[in-house]
Specification:
alpha/beta
């Protein structure tokens, strides 16, 4: 066994022990590196360089401006340049003349109450939206990083989904995490700003569960205004292209962001204190990493020299050829101190994501846990003014007695030792099943074989649990699926155009 294989085995065991001991889902702090890896998103410098190239009024190349300025200073400079460009175009535009056109700008941007940087941020949002795939299925060989294949990217994403993170915290502007943890990028994923302190919908309305995203998207200042910490959220702490004005880009933006730091850090610290944290998609010297670990350091006692539950994952093409593999990494903090975190280097992310997915799986889709928490808060907080009669004793029993709570939530009563465990014979992940059957990817398995079964037999075997397929929560964009040995035999017959039957009783097939 090579040194790298020894290292992988040791780190895998360490991660699995951590997520099992924590008895809760990990939190992922994800940076632009993942978006670059999977769909060719621009880096911060790459984005600013594109903005310089797109403005003919700038006489110099990007390097000229960047040589004497930090990224936020370049952003501040470009914000003013783009404002002058936009207002110059607007000066030549006559809204009363049908033949006059305002090319490249939305007329609504020219409201005098808008900040000057609104034009630059609108262009950034336009550029990133155009590059971001709306679904994982939209990825192709041309967009994934040159160091990985499309199939490798799809497998990593499948394993990332299976982590079922408690939350995803990101400084990315793009919305690709919605494609990963929900079925697609859609505005239905966004937290309604008018209901930021509630369940996100009107509790008096009849709600279709499929209309609630598995992971709710919370953007910018919404993070500060939520009344409680939730499960199943994608937190864009530097804003998102869904709301261009929310983007934290310029020096002024970062100054304002830092003035809110105390409030934001208090929100984040609870995540860091109670959940394993995986940091991925950042360089160790990234100021965003330094900032978030400064927050994490605030929850450590003075005698702790290493944060046992924080992992920093770095991609290294030559990981297998290294002479040594440090288990810890020293990261400089905002306050001048240092924090040791656990270091992971990998030439692919499969084994890391798979290890983080080894903790206990959620028995319920995050959308329902999040809605239960939020609606409980809404209902109880409105009782005093709604005229309802409150059974205070019952409420106290549920709040203080876990047995009562289990009853309310529908858990089975009885001695767990007398209840036989449910055993599943479904051991193949979708990608493993595809490999076993001999197709290129789990997407080809879906399109070429499972869709063919539905066409032949009128049964979608993925839509319910059966002898061939099992899913741990129904129709979620992040469902951990498994297939059985019988499914493998079935898929091979379909692939080879052999006769086959579905051995599923008719009464078990949903309408």
């Amino acid at each position: 066994m090579s040194d790298f294989e020894d290292y992988r085995e040791e780190m895998t065991a360490d991660i699995e022990e951590t997520v099992t001991r924590a008895n809760c889902q990990p939190v992922i702090f994800a940076g632009t590196g993942l978006s670059i890896r999977y769909f060719g998103a621009p880096s911060w410098d790459g984005l600013l360089e594109k903005l310089v190239q797109d403005y003919d009024g700038l006489e110099q190349e990007y390097g000229f401006y960047r040589q004497t300025r930090g990224p936020t200073e370049v952003g501040q400079f470009l914000a003013e340049q783009y404002a002058e460009w936009a207002w110059s175009d607007y000066g030549d535009y006559d809204e009363d003349d049908d033949d006059s056109e305002l090319v490249g700008w939305n007329e609504g941007l020219f409201d005098h109450e808008n900040d000057r940087d609104v034009f630059l941020k609108a262009k950034i949002a336009e550029h990133i939206r155009a590059k971001t795939p709306k679904t994982v299925a939209d990825l192709d060989e041309d967009t994934v990083h040159e160091e990985i294949t499309l199939d490798e990217a799809l497998r990593e994403i499948e394993l990332l989904q299976e982590i079922q993170p408690h939350a995803v915290i990101t400084t990315n502007y793009d919305r690709f995490f919605e494609a990963i943890f929900n079925d697609e990028v859609t505005n239905d994923n966004l937290l309604d700003d008018d209901r930021v302190g509630s369940a996100g919908f009107n509790r008096d309305e009849e709600i279709d569960p499929e209309d609630i995203p598995s992971y709710r998207v919370v953007v910018g200042e919404q993070v500060l205004r939520t009344r409680y910490r939730n499960i199943g959220e994608i937190l864009h702490i530097h804003g998102s292209v869904s709301d261009p004005e929310s983007l934290v880009l310029t020096e002024d933006d970062y100054h304002e962001f830092n003035t809110r730091r105390r409030y934001l850090s208090s929100k984040m610290l609870t995540y860091f204190a109670e959940h394993p944290l995986l940091i991925v998609g950042y360089r160790p010297d990234d100021p965003n990493v330094q900032q978030v670990l400064t927050w994490a350091d605030e929850v450590l006692s003075d005698d702790q020299s290493i944060t046992e539950d924080i992992y920093f994952l770095q991609w290294d093409k030559e990981a297998g050829e290294r002479e040594e593999y440090p288990r810890e990494y020293n990261i400089k903090l905002d306050d001048g101190g240092n924090l040791q975190v656990k270091s992971i280097v990998a030439d692919d992310f499969d084994w890391v994501f798979e290890a983080f997915a080894e903790g206990d799986e959620l028995a319920v889709d995050p959308r329902y846990l999040r809605s239960l928490l939020a609606q409980t808060y809404d209902v109880v907080s409105s009782m005093s003014s709604g005229g309802e009669v409150v059974d205070v004793q019952r409420l106290e029993d549920v709040a203080t007695d876990i047995g009562e709570l289990r009853t309310v939530l529908g858990y089975m009563e009885g001695d767990p030792g007398q209840i036989p465990p449910i055993q599943f014979q479904h051991t193949y992940r979708p990608s493993d099943a595809a490999e076993e059957v001999g197709v290129d990817s789990f997407q080809n398995l879906n399109q070429d074989i499972i869709d063919q079964i539905e066409e032949d037999k009128g049964v979608n075997i993925k839509s319910f649990n059966n002898r061939y397929h099992i899913a741990f929560f129904e129709q979620s964009g992040v469902t951990p699926r498994r297939y059985s040995e019988e499914a493998i035999e079935l898929f091979r017959k379909v692939k080879d155009d052999e006769d086959y039957n579905l051995d599923i009783p008719e009464e078990r097939i949903p309408d």
